[in-house]
Design a protein that fits this description.
Radius of gyration: 25 Å
CATH superfamily of the largest domain: Spore Coat Polysaccharide Biosynthesis Protein SpsA, Chain A
Strand content: 15-25%
Helix content: 40-55%
Distance between the termini: 26 Å
Largest sheet: 8 strands, mixed
Number of helices: 9
Number of domains: 2
Structural class: alpha/beta
Strand order of the largest sheet: 7-5-6-4-1-2-3-8
Shape: elongated
């Protein structure tokens, strides 16, 4: 019998979370091979739980001092399980609103057991608006362009106990959980799962939230992005140099008629070269500055955020 801990962040959405808790409890009736415990990370909500389902032996509510955001709430929950729970086999990370369907947890656990790796839910069907889908599509393309990696999943995942220690030691999980796993080179796998519909209310993921979420995932790859920007800048400067040399060659060594604006074009191209060089220099200096800061992993950082535990 496997002991599973489900970590879910929550902000003012107790009604949806109540449905989620009940559905996870129902899984024990249909899957007797699992014992589920739930860790709800209350991310500074201004409302409070009223449903009796939250006050049971198998449900822990971690109340944070302030709102720290979705990704940091997940990091707090994972570090709590690692430090405070002695006996568990796997950890499930999922949203509390129903979009990560608890009915799919057995599929994640089965894949996790078979591959013995961290397993993420890759979406094969989404329920969001067309505008959100378009924004998410652009985010994935930008992520691929800047990092060279393809991201097609979010936070819904299963972590074997053997990999939780390495996961909670990653400093980048405080910025972006799934991006940190990808960047860390920890082994992970994917399984195709449909995205569900919210149990109640509307999604809090608006355009601004999506942009901040995307920037957080890209920031994890700052070192790789620096190298790619350097490469693109060098290519751009080489193209500009070739353009300047070609214009000068035509003007000085041939009898071809050169337009009067050729000199202005050379100045413009020279300005582009200077700008590309400046951008490259700034990025390299930022990268060198960040590499000299060696923060040791802190697996008990979660204690700084917790107000109390119910």
């Amino acid at each position: 019998m496997q002991k599973i801990y489900c970590v879910t962040p929550l902000y003012n959405d107790w009604q949806s979370c109540s449905v989620l808790v009940n559905k996870i409890k129902q899984l024990e009736n249909t899957h007797s091979e699992f014992i589920f415990n739930i860790v709800i990370v209350n991310d500074g909500s201004v409302t409070f739980p009223e449903d009796a389902v939250f006050f049971s032996e198998k449900v822990k509510i971690i109340n944070l001092k302030v709102n720290v955001g979705h990704q940091r709430a997940i990091a707090v929950g994972l570090q709590y399980v690692y430090n405070e729970v002695n006996d568990y086999d796997m950890v499930i990370v999922l949203d509390s609103d129903g979009e990560d369907r608890p009915e799919d947890i057995p599929l994640l656990l089965k894949k996790c057991t078979e591959s013995n790796t961290i397993v993420f839910a890759e979406r094969k069907k989404r329920e969001e608006s067309q505008l959100f889908k378009a924004g998410y599509f652009l985010y994935k393309k930008l992520f691929k362009l800047l990092t060279g990696q393809r991201i097609s999943f979010g936070n819904y995942s299963a972590i074997p106990s053997a990999y939780l220690k390495k996961t909670v030691a990653l400093n980048n999980i405080w910025n972006h959980y799934s991006g940190a796993i990808m960047h860390s080179k920890l082994p992970y796998d994917k399984i195709l799962i449909d995205r569900g519909k919210r149990y109640s209310g509307t999604s809090k993921m608006n355009f601004n939230s999506l942009v901040l979420h995307g920037l957080s995932s890209i920031a994890v790859y700052f070192d790789s992005i620096s190298v790619r920007i350097l490469k693109f800048s060098i290519y751009g400067m080489l193209i500009c140099f070739v353009g300047v040399i070609y214009i000068l060659f035509q003007k000085l060594f041939t009898d071809n008629a050169i337009p009067g604006w050729a000199s202005s074009l050379i100045l413009i191209i020279s300005g582009i070269i200077v700008q590309l060089f400046s951008v490259t220099l700034i990025v390299l200096l930022l990268q060198l500055s960040s590499r000299k800061n060696t923060d040791s992993p802190n697996i008990k950082k979660y204690l700084d955020y917790i107000d109390d535990i119910q």
